[in-house]
Amino acid sequence: MATTIEQPEKTKAEPELLGLLAEFDDPHALVAASTKVRDAGYNRWDTHTPFPMHGIDEAMGIKWTILPWIVAACGLTGGTIAISMQYWMNAVDYPFLISGKPLFSIPACIPITFELSVLLAAFGAFFGMLGLNQLPKLYNPMFKSEAFRRVTNDRFFLSMDASDPKFSEIDTGEFVKSLNPIHVEEFWSDVESPKLPRNLKLGLSLVGVFMLMPIALVAYKRSTVTDTPRIHIVPDMDFQPKLKTQNTTGIFGDGREVRPHIPGTIPRGQFKDDNVPFYYGLKELPEDQDVITIAVQDEKQADEKKPAADEKPAEAGKADAQPAADAKAAEDDKLAKLPWVTEFPMPVTEKMMARGKERFRIYCSVCHGLGGEGDGLVTLRAMDLQQGTWVKPASYHTDNVRKQPVGRLFNTITNGVRKMPAYGPQIPPEDRWAIVLYVRALQKSHQVDAKTLTDEEKQKLRDTK
């Protein structure tokens, strides 16, 4: 005979007393009551007001928050991470020499360090505030109180937590009533967990679906190919009516969008007098020649006669070697006939030499190399690629370059030559002459035998390295 075991009936959970809620109609009464609760030794209680109240923190005995220390720790952590990251990237993992600059420099790291410190400090302030306040709290049993709903309007409340060690349902209740509130009530825990309304569930489901749609759309676009152009929401921003560098246009006859400098002109603010040697490197301006464009145009024409990258070297050499050589010779002859200055049009000083060395390492050494041999980092990289479009810079120590007057070297820096762009708009005339002076020093350094130097001169050279 089978027997059945009767299951015990589930007992309904009994509500638990969570605390007491006292209502006041005056902020001063709440401050006075808070002072008495603090003096009574209660630790787990709180006040609720419709607006911030001055003096309530002192009345409650609230201690200073540790949030500033959290913010400071997060900020220092961000700064440490930024400094360490930049040191590792620049000085250890991928060191890259640029114009003699140090591999690691604190001033250069300040922007990223500042940004990361502020970012982590802001995270610390935001999430620290949420954690210390135990937020977010979406529900509190006090919300069931009809009287408590006026806490956002014109009522002031004091809540006593039943988990306080000094809390007693009878004694604490009498104590709260002695604070002269207009109303005291108990608040209890919920026996049954409230169910979300059906409409709310449906709304949250729709929101979740809509939030997934952008992610799904991006994934779809990344996995498909289309022939139609993208949508331009603001076409004026995507197609601005302006000319850009290194693009072509039909507006001007030469087809270039960027306009070259007007021949014979000097940028505004640089020309202080009619000092032709200082600004042009010439003793006087020829009347029948365009000084500004001579070097640029002739060098460009000679460069265009070089074989194309996709042309076979042997065939290109036979077809274009003689025309290119003739164009080069004609260009050299035209430049040699100009009245270049042979002396510096400004006093030569040690300060000028130091300035020239500094400017040379910034603007010139990347291609020409620190010693002027034409072995800079850019040149070495371009030669390794072997794309056929790079013209290796000439060494400063060849007879052709050493015999050039200082005025012609100044003109080369100003207007460029072959693949070298014009540095006149970037480097002031004083610095261009300083660079020429340093180039002359490099050239002379290769013509002096170290054995002929005295011990004092050798020591001076060591000290200036």
Automatic annotation (TrEMBL):
Residues 351-443 form the Cytochrome c domain. It holds the Pfam family ActD. It comes from the Bacteria. SUPFAM superfamilies: Cytochrome c. Keywords: Heme, Iron, Membrane, Metal-binding, Transmembrane, Transmembrane helix. GO terms for molecular function: electron transfer activity; heme binding; metal ion binding. Residues 299-318 have a biased composition (Basic and acidic residues). The chain crosses the membrane at residues 66-89, 104-132, 202-220. Residues 299-331 are annotated as: Disordered. This is Cytochrome c. The lineage of its organism: Bacteria, Pseudomonadati, Planctomycetota, Planctomycetia, Planctomycetales.
